[in-house]
Amino acid sequence: MSRPSTAALIPAAGTGERLGMGPKAFVCLGQKTLLMHVVDAFDGLVDEIVVAVSPEMVNEASGRISNARMIVGGSSRQATVLNLLRATAAELVIVHDAARPFLEPAVIDRTLAATRRHGAVTAARPVVDSLIDTTSQMSVDREKLRAVQTPQGFRHELLLRAHLRAFEGGYSATDDAALVRRLGHEVALVEGSPMLMKVTTLQDLEMARALERSWCRADT
Ligand code: C5P
Fold it and tell me: What is the pTM of this model?
């Protein structure tokens, strides 16, 4: 039996307001933009790579990146992912934020393998800090909790159904796995990585630039 076709879907249409350096996906980290790091990580591991950027960035991004197809994103991350889902016919999709540039091949491999098995999967990490509920002032047991990251993998049909239900119902979530769980479908967890840090603030970018120097050495 042939393997189901795969696509990496990369939402990169954010404004990067908290970072304050223009569209975040196009901020440089070493020799490449955040977005190029992510596109290159998927190169050769999936059948196609589709990236969604803001309308102003489409021409520039298409000119600079040859190993992915560019489309226009939406006004929220969720709207952007829906556009991406409509732009591919792949049977399995892996959604990964452009804001998480350090994507190891092993993470992609285990996400793809688990998606083939379960149909819905997210990378997640144990929580290492102690936690407090600020309303009740009570400690929260961190053993049961996981921090959710991307990549997240799904059967295309399942994630599209979850997004259309959310669109019709007018509700939103900060990640795609949450929308799939709202359909009543279980989402399997695969081991994420501390390297999957999300670049949100200037401090994150400084940390990422320090990390990138050793990441490049490990790459060669
Ligand atoms: O803003 P935040 O870091 O949470 O965004 C996560 C990812 O979603 C980023 O890669 C960003 O470019 C993307 N995004 C998008 N379309 C939007 C808003 C965010 O593709 N309208």
Answer: 0.96
